[in-house]
Amino acid sequence: MTTKRLGLLLPSSGTVQEVDFYRRVPDDVSVHAARMRLVGTTEPDEVRMLDEHALPAARDLATVRPDVVVFSCTSAGALRGAGYDAELCARIAEETGAPTVSTLAAAREALERLGARAVALLTPYVAELTDRVRASLEAAGIAVPRVHGLGLTDSLAIARVTPEEIHACAVERFRGAPVDAIFVACCTFRAFDAKPAIERALGRPVVTSNSAALEAALRILGANGR
To answer: Which of 29, 39, 144, 204 is the most buried (most CB within 10 A)?
Structure first.
């Protein structure tokens, strides 16, 4: 059996996405991570990560010769608009020699495949980053009538929010919302584990950053997740 290599390019302070991917890839896919230095989940820190650390980390990741790469930072993908995000992923693809998935673009595409024209957005971020993600969805023609951010700036604090707390927050904030789907953003947020319970409680499909990115990467590999 030939093993396919999935590369994760993630913020250095991220602790969730590797676990989410490891647990769900099929047996013939392995996961390999390279880290971009990120101290805090704020706009200045993420700009520094993009400008100083993304491409060097991609060059490191290239040494494992990945078959696909995921740029695993939703908010950073939203900072400078979809055009910049696509350009960055193209540059990562050049560095790694592998097709590169933008997490934010994968989430938008997942919502579009669901036919979602109106979406509720839940993030762990401060208002500035939440607004950037909302603007990215709206620029793609998706209305975002309900938004809630938790106001967290520390990646480890974001990762400590339990799936049960994410579920409770989504239900409290979005029950009865006039939306077609819910998007729970952030790659180091334990939303993948909360997804089934939110869907049962609200009767709407849920897209999370890691679920969308993993599905997109596995499609490129021609593989199915667990």
So the answer is: 29
Residue among 146, 159, 147 nearest 210 (CA): 159
82 pLDDT tier (thresholds 50, 70, 90): very high
Q: Distances in Å between the alpha carbon of 33 and those of 17, 115, 123?
A: 10, 32, 23
Q: Where are the domains of the chain?
A: 4-103+211-221, 105-209
Separation between Cα atoms, residue 210 and residue 76, nearest integer Å? 14
Phi, psi of 82 (to 5 degrees): -65, -35
Q: Do 105-209 and 4-103+211-221 fall under one CATH topology?
A: yes
| Residue in the structure block whose two tokens are 């897209």 | 207
- The answer to whether the beta carbons of residues 207 and 86 sit under 8 Å apart is no
Q: pLDDT (tens digit, 9 = 90+) per residue, 65-75?
A: 999 999 999 99
Q: Give the CA radius of gyration of the chain.
A: 16
Decide yes or no: CATH 3.40.50.12500 for domain 4-103+211-221.
Answer: yes
Q: How far apart are CA 64 and CA 60, in angstroms?
A: 8
Question: What SS3 class is residue 144?
Answer: strand
As given in the structure block, the two tokens for residue 204 are 């709407």
Fold of 105-209: Rossmann fold (3.40.50)
